[in-house]
Structures are given as C-alpha cells and as structure tokens.
C-alpha cells in the first residue's frame, strides 16, 4: 500500500518526520518507502531522516538494497546521523556494506563510529565487516582508542582463522590487558579461543594479568575448553587464582570443572576447589558431568565438602554424580 502513495508525496511526508519517528516503523515498511521513493529521492533526504529510515530496516532489507546502495546511504547521511541510529543498527549497516566499502569510510570515521557502539553491538557484525573495521582503523590505533568491552566485541566478531592476520600478537596482548572479566562477556567463545591461540599459553599464563586470564576463559564455551585440554584448564585456574575464578560466575566455573579430569583437579587443589564449590549455585554444580563431579568430590574430600558447602550445593553436586 505504501507504493500507492507515490515517491514525491512520500518525500514531502518525510520532511515532517525525524529519525526517531522512523524507529516505530517495521523494517518492511521502511524498505517499502525506500522502493516507492527510489534511490535518487532517498539520497536527497535530510541525514537524520535517512538514518531513521535505514535504522528501521533489518539486515534482510539492507541486503536487498545491496552493499553499494547501503554504502551510498551511509555516506550521504553523514557520520553524526549514522551514529544517531544506535549501535545495533550501525552493526547491521556495516555488515551489509562489505569490507571494501567500510575501508572507504576512512580510519577517523570508522573510529568515531566504533567508539559510539557497545561491545555487544560490535560483536553482532559479520566477520568480514569486523575485520574490515579493525583493518581500516589500524589494530594498534583501535586498541589505543577503544575500551575493553568494545575491543572484546570487535575481536570476538572477527573470523578466528583471520585474527592473527588482523592483529599481531603484541597488539592483541595490549588489547587483552585492557579487558576486565565483565568486558570479556562481549566476546564470543570462538574469539576467546582464537585469542588464546594467537597469544600462546606461555604468554597468557606468564604475562597476562590474572583478571584477564579469568575473563578470557569465562568467554570460552565447552567446545573451546575441550580443544585446549584438561591440563591447560587446570593451569588457567591456578594462574587466575580462586577469587578471580569465582568472579567468572558459577556457570563458567562448572564448564571449566567439566573440562578437567581427576589429575587436573589435584593440580588445582582440594582447598581451592572447596572454596570455588562454596561460591557456586546448586544448579550450576548439577550441570557438571558425572566424572567431573566425582573427581571434584574426591579431590576435596567428604569432610571438606560438608564443611564448605551448603545443602543446595551438596544436592547439586550429588545429583550430578553417577
């Protein structure tokens, strides 16, 4: 029905709408307006209104417009209007633009956009867009300018196989040092695993801070932990220390426990395990594998478990065992 209004009439209506007014509109409606008006009229819109129209669209509508069309719109609306769309819409727009068009924005413009986005929004970009953004800004310059949460999201969005190419090890180390445990929550499990691979265990456990080690492993999923192996997981727990391990949260601790065998549990030590178990919820303890729960109980000892754990926690651990 929007198409029946006519492009010129729609353009006049746009003059009465701000960018914020478009955000109540569905993506299909915004795309319908774009089609009815035609590219030439859309490019004559005020930057704020154009940003509102494109911000209302989803990734499917932006893909229908095409990478060149989205890039033209980004250039026409201007960086300030584009930032006004919000981080989530910017992430979709960059993903639709493609790497070459992101590069054409330039380092200053891309850095200004990245600084306006949250780590979660940066993490929603597709791998090509994330790598192009990092490459356009320069990895060293991006590391200096962005905050820890933003770096975590952006690094986590890059294809793990491409991370070493986009960020040299020494720059990646500087980026990791800026992150807290909470910052790493914006990073994907694949990104955290790739960060560990690029830095290497010697550098991670020998030079990176305890908080950062905890954050990196908290971001990993069971798949990445299984690939690293049980000895590496126990070394990570010893390196980060009990307080930082507890700071990862109960669910992340349960994943790490499940990735360890009885020998790795001994390396961590019964006293540390008891303190960690005492800080976990019964629900998280129940999520451990039977082997992990049994090994953890054996390493702690029944007396220490009784003294250090509450009823809910004991119930969860016993429930996880065979």
List keywords for this structure.
30 helices, 322 residues, single chain, mainly alpha, elongated
Mean pLDDT: 91
Roughly how much helix do the residues carry, as a percent range? Answer: over 70%
Largest sheet: none
- The tally of beta strands, per DSSP, is 0
- Rg of Cα set: 24 Å
Helix/strand-derived class?
Answer: mainly alpha
Please mark out the parts with pLDDT under 50 across 5 or more consecutive residues, or reply none. none
Which word captures the global form?
A: elongated
Strand and helix order: HHHHHHHHHHHHHHHHHHHHHHHHHHHHHH
Distance between the termini: 63 Å
Polypeptide structure, described:
By secondary structure, this protein is mainly alpha-helical. It is 76% helix and 0% strand. The protein has helices at residues 7-14, 19-22, 27-37, 39-43, 47-56, 59-65, 67-77, 79-84, 87-97, 99-105, 107-115, 119-123, 127-137, 139-145, 148-157, 163-166, 169-177, 189-199, 201-206, 210-219, 222-228, 230-240, 242-247, 250-258, 262-268, 270-278, 282-286, 290-300, 302-308, 311-320. α5 (47-56) packs antiparallel against α7 (67-77). The radius of gyration is 24 Å and the shape is elongated.
Structure, briefly:
It contains 30 helices and no strands. It is mainly alpha-helical and 322 residues long.
SSE blueprint and pairings:
Layout (H helix, E strand, L loop, with lengths): L6 H8 L4 H4 L4 H11 L1 H5 L3 H10 L2 H7 L1 H11 L1 H6 L2 H11 L1 H7 L1 H9 L3 H5 L3 H11 L1 H7 L2 H10 L5 H4 L2 H9 L11 H11 L1 H6 L3 H10 L2 H7 L1 H11 L1 H6 L2 H9 L3 H7 L1 H9 L3 H5 L3 H11 L1 H7 L2 H10 L2
């Amino acid at each position: 029905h929007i198409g029946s209004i006519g492009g010129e009439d729609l353009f006049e209506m746009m003059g009465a709408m701000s960018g914020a007014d478009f955000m109540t509109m569905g993506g299909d409606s915004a795309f319908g307006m774009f089609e009815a008006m035609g590219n030439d009229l859309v490019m004559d819109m005020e930057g704020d209104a154009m940003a509102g129209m494109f911000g209302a669209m989803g990734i499917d509508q932006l893909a229908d417009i095409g990478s060149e069309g989205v890039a033209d719109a980004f250039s026409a609306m201007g960086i300030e209007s584009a930032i006004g769309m919000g981080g989530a819409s910017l992430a979709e727009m960059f993903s639709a633009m493609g790497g070459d068009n992101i590069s054409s924005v330039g380092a200053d413009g891309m850095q200004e956009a990245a600084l306006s986005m949250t780590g979660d929004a940066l993490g929603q970009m597709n791998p090509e867009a994330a790598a192009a953004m990092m490459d356009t800004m320069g990895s060293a310059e991006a590391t200096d300018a962005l905050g820890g949460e933003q770096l975590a999201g952006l690094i986590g969005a890059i294809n793990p196989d491409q991370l070493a190419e986009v960020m040299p090890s020494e720059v990646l180390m500087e980026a990791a040092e800026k992150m807290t445990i909470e910052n790493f929550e914006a990073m994907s499990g694949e990104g955290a695993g790739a960060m560990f691979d690029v830095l290497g265990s010697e550098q991670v456990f020998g030079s990176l801070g305890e908080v950062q080690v905890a954050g990196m492993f908290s971001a990993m999923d069971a798949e990445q932990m299984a690939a690293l192996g049980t000895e590496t997981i126990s070394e990570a727990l010893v390196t980060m220390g009990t307080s930082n391990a507890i700071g990862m949260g109960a669910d992340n601790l349960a994943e790490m426990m499940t990735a360890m065998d009885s020998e790795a549990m001994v390396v961590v030590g019964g006293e540390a395990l008891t303190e960690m178990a005492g800080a976990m919820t019964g629900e998280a303890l129940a999520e451990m594998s039977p082997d992990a729960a049994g090994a953890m109980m054996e390493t702690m000892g029944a007396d220490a478990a009784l003294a250090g754990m509450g009823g809910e926690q004991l119930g969860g651990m016993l429930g996880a065992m065979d």
